[in-house]
Amino acid sequence: MATTGADTSLMHAQSTINKLPLVRRLEAVGFRAWPASSVQYDGSWQVRLTAGHPSKRLNSVVPLDPSDHRDLEIRLAKAQRKFEAYGRLMVVRETPLASPQLIDLLRDRGWTRFEETIVMIADLVDLELPDMLDHLPSHDVGRYVDASLMVDGVDPAMKPALAEVVSSIKPPSGLFVIENDDAGPVATTLCVQDNDLAGVMSVAVSPQHRRKGLGAEILTSALRWARMRSAKTAWLQVGATNEPALALYTRFGFREAYRYCYWRPPEDV
């Protein structure tokens, strides 16, 4: 029997509904793994703001219920005032939990969709990993932050902001750094273990030391550490166009769970 367009739409809608519990859980652990300094709610919208750090994950409106679409224009204007008070450009983060009516409104108002990100998960129970850790995690936030800024090529003036975010993570965290005798820090990652879930955050390798296996090396240590602490599933976020990172994560058994993106208003708004 042929499949009609209506059938395809129904199957897509059913697939989206079926994965919403997973999306909700991963969003919740993601908030705890990268905590904003100010979190306010408007209905099911989470308004996340952080004065010291510019990360969009820390400064965005995140709708958390597809059925919540009341008073959209009023609530957008209210959120806009909060962002203006922080000196931030307002952005809306679209996940499968955002209402279609909100996205239609943003599109009709001329907002721009940008920066698509893939949230991936992997089973840690049966993943083949070495019995021993090549690199032990540190709990020295200052050392990790210095290394992370250096590897990412970020202005050292961002140290207080990044240190504040990392220090405010409440679940157990492993701070991993690979150092070279000559070059200093060459790779970093942060792994946050939240019950049976482990979030692998910001895997980074300095540009001049890429394609040497350092990404796989530090990711292996982070995942092994998480499994030793009884985590059963790992998750991470990666840019949809970051082909080298996607290839690395696929080798470790990561698969797509869902995607999100951001919306920003027209410049003249």
Automatic annotation (TrEMBL):
Gene3D superfamilies: 3.40.630.30
Presence of the UniProt keyword Acyltransferase in the record: yes
Pfam entry (one): Rv0428c_C
Coiled-coil boundaries: none
GO molecular function annotation: acyltransferase activity, transferring groups other than amino-acyl groups
UniProt keyword annotations, A-Z: Acyltransferase, Transferase
Domain N-acetyltransferase positions: 127-269
Membrane-traversing stretches: none
Recorded superkingdom: Bacteria
InterPro entries (UniProt xref): Acyl_CoA_acyltransferase, Bact_Acetyltransf, GNAT_dom, Rv0428c-like_C
UniProt-recorded name of the protein: Acetyltransferase (GNAT) family protein
Top-level taxonomy: Bacteria, Pseudomonadati, Pseudomonadota, Alphaproteobacteria, Hyphomicrobiales
